[in-house]
Structure formats: structure tokens, C-alpha cells
Write a structure and sequence with these properties.
This protein is an alpha+beta fold. The protein is built from four helices and three strands, in the order αααββαβ. A three-stranded mixed beta sheet has the order 1-2-3.
Length: about 110
């Protein structure tokens, strides 16, 4: 009985995960690009990495996926300075979403 239920359950689970990933594709892409940028800078600093993960988590909670359309990357320069890179209105929305949580400065910069 359980073996006959395995295929439909796996199929439904795979479909649900695909739909969830598609609905959050921009958020997933910002996380991936930001983490890749941080890891490419040489030896990653644990404090900066923790600050980046906290910033990305806050950004994911406070914005919708469609709001992040123009955001390319989020970088933590110092623990109190976050740079949101990209172009379009998504950068402004992301900077505004992070403004209440970051202590000092959030700069929205346009990609060259």
C-alpha cells in the first residue's frame, strides 16, 4: 500500500518545490549572487558573512519577490554599511526595506 502511494506523493512534492522556487526566483538569485560575491573576495570574514546572511534574511522578509527585479547583489562593506547594487526601482525598494534595520548607511548604487 505504501509503495503505491510513493510515486504520487513524490510527484506532488516535486511540483510543490518547483512552484515555490519559481515564485521566489528573484530572491533566490539575489541570495546566490550575494553569497558568491562574498565568497569570491578571498578568505571570507565570519562576521561579515553573518551580517550578510542577516541582511539577506531581513530583505527577504520585508520585500516581495517582484520588488527585487532590479537588484543584482547585496554587499556588506562594514558591519554598519550595506551596498545594494543594481538598477531600477527594485534597488530603491530594497534600500528602503533595509533602512530601518541597518544602523548607519544603506547606499543604492547603479551598476556600471
Amino acid at each position: 500500500m505504501l509503495r503505491t502511494m510513493r510515486h504520487p506523493v513524490r510527484s506532488a512534492l516535486r511540483t510543490a518545490l518547483t512552484v515555490a522556487a519559481w515564485n521566489n526566483r528573484r530572491t533566490i538569485a539575489v541570495w546566490a549572487r550575494s553569497l558568491a560575491t562574498e565568497l569570491r573576495t578571498g578568505r571570507p570574514d565570519a562576521g561579515r558573512l553573518a551580517s550578510l546572511l542577516a541582511t539577506l534574511s531581513t530583505l527577504a522578509r520585508r520585500t516581495r519577490d517582484g520588488d527585487l527585479a532590479g537588484v543584482e547583489c547585496v554587499r556588506v562593506v562594514d558591519r554598519d554599511l550595506v551596498v545594494v547594487e543594481g538598477d531600477g526601482a527594485g534597488v530603491d525598494l530594497a534600500a528602503n526595506a533595509l533602512g530601518a534595520t541597518v544602523a548607519a548607511d544603506v547606499r543604492a548604487t547603479a551598476m556600471a
